[in-house]
Amino acid sequence: MQTIRILYFARLRESLGLSGEEMPLDQALSVQALMALLAARGGQWQQEFDGCRPLRAAVNQTLVANGSMIHAGDEVAFFPPVTGG
Amino acid sequence: MQTIRILYFARLRESLGLSGEEMPLDQALSVQALMALLAARGGQWQQEFDGCRPLRAAVNQTLVANGSMIHAGDEVAFFPPVTGG
Amino acid sequence: MEVRVQHEDFDAGAEIARMRLARRDTGAVACFIGQVRDLNEGDEVALMTLEHYPGMTEKALQNIAEEAGRRWDIHDALVIHRIGELKPAEQIVLVIVSGAHRGEAFAACEFIMDYLKTEAPFWKKEQTASGERWVDAKASDDKARDRWHQS
Amino acid sequence: MEVRVQHEDFDAGAEIARMRLARRDTGAVACFIGQVRDLNEGDEVALMTLEHYPGMTEKALQNIAEEAGRRWDIHDALVIHRIGELKPAEQIVLVIVSGAHRGEAFAACEFIMDYLKTEAPFWKKEQTASGERWVDAKASDDKARDRWHQS
């Protein structure tokens, strides 16, 4: 079975109580579609992924827009706006 | 007798062969007028003070425009554009 | 262009000396150090924890430094960013840019900091008397980055 | 605001550490180091001699640093400029600015360098294979300074 790896960082990781997971993926989907899938889990997931809180996504360690496509084998990451430096 | 002190720096000092001098001064005169007096000495003096070469003037250690007045007791300095840093 | 993400502190003086002596045609070295302030938004900060995204963070910093090298005529750039727990007055980040002339070294150094602040995956959590909190991103940082789009 | 004009070399790392640890609300330190390049206008430089105007030079540097302190919200500024004979790769000038935030520290540091280059009475003489020569002032330095008139 084909999968993607999803990572959660910082406030998101703490809020979801999860730093990452494997998810089965049969066909490519957009970042936005993945966020809708995650929001559908309800509770904290809905709060974090309903699009109201500022969120950034990376696919294979590159920042992407929500329309970008995700393919099997990809590493997808979600995190709040960055605050280093 | 009242005097002013005149200082020469860098290329100017070397060209004139002089780092400074006292000059009698009976009444206030402009920087420009002093430059004309110095140019009138001829030779290197004329070359340096005829206004063709870029030259900056300071009175009492503050950069001034050529119209500024010089009074007895003042320290006047002439030098090429600065090149520190 | 070299980037390092590390728990350990860094020696800014030693890194600057190394950068400036690496090439004899280097005339200018611009650098920046960011450190933990004791106060943020009115609250005393006891400890700051810096989280990152291993792999992507290093890649993002490398890309930013290389983009600076494409935009300006510089000799080299070094970025060191610390992670983990940091106390007030501890150093967080060091950026050094060397070049022949100061204008380009300054611009590249500030560019790297502005992009690091908005594009490199680091997140700060502060411990204050009223508990833990994640530091919010600042609109002013986005603005600082967006200046570079015009030039 | 502190300025020093001296023959001796300086320890940039020690000065930076002192500046950044002086106040616990300091979050940003911007700094600049200028050094003697081995080549200038195509000629190899064997030695550079820096002349200054004792008294006026210190006053001019102090004025520039204080003007930076009026224009930007910074904590402190330090300017060290060397005089006398300097070999290639030797340090000439150090400017350090500390503040709460990076934008202001960067701007003040670059402002001080741009004004130092055009207003502080220092003159450079180079020794090359073809003899001694006074370094000419650059129009680009006047331009760099004039940018600050608009802001």
Detailed description of the structure:
The complex is a heterotetramer, with 2 copies of chain A (85 residues) and 2 copies of chain C (151 residues). Chain A has 85 residues and is α+β, with helices and mostly antiparallel strands. Chain A has a single domain, classed as Ubiquitin-like (UB roll). Helix content of chain A is 27%, strand content 32%. Chain A contains 3 helices and 7 strands; from the N terminus they run βαββααββββ. In chain A, a hairpin with a 2-residue loop joins β4 (56-59) and β5. The model of chain A has no long low-confidence stretch (mean pLDDT 96). Chain C has 151 residues and is α+β, with helices and mostly antiparallel strands. Chain C has one domain (2-150): Molybdopterin biosynthesis MoaE subunit (Aldehyde Oxidoreductase, domain 3, Alpha-Beta Complex). In chain C, the strands form 2 sheets. In chain C, strands 3, 4, 6, 8 and 9 form a 5-stranded antiparallel β-sheet that branches. Chain C has a 4-stranded mixed β-sheet with strand order 1-5-7-2, sandwiched between helices. In chain C, α2 (56-71) runs antiparallel to α3 and α3 (102-119) crosses α4. The mean pLDDT of chain C is 96. Chains in contact: A-C, B-D, C-D. Chains C and D meet through α1, β2 and α3 of C and α1, β2 and α3 of D. β2 (28-35) of chain C pairs antiparallel with β2 of chain D, so a sheet runs across the interface.
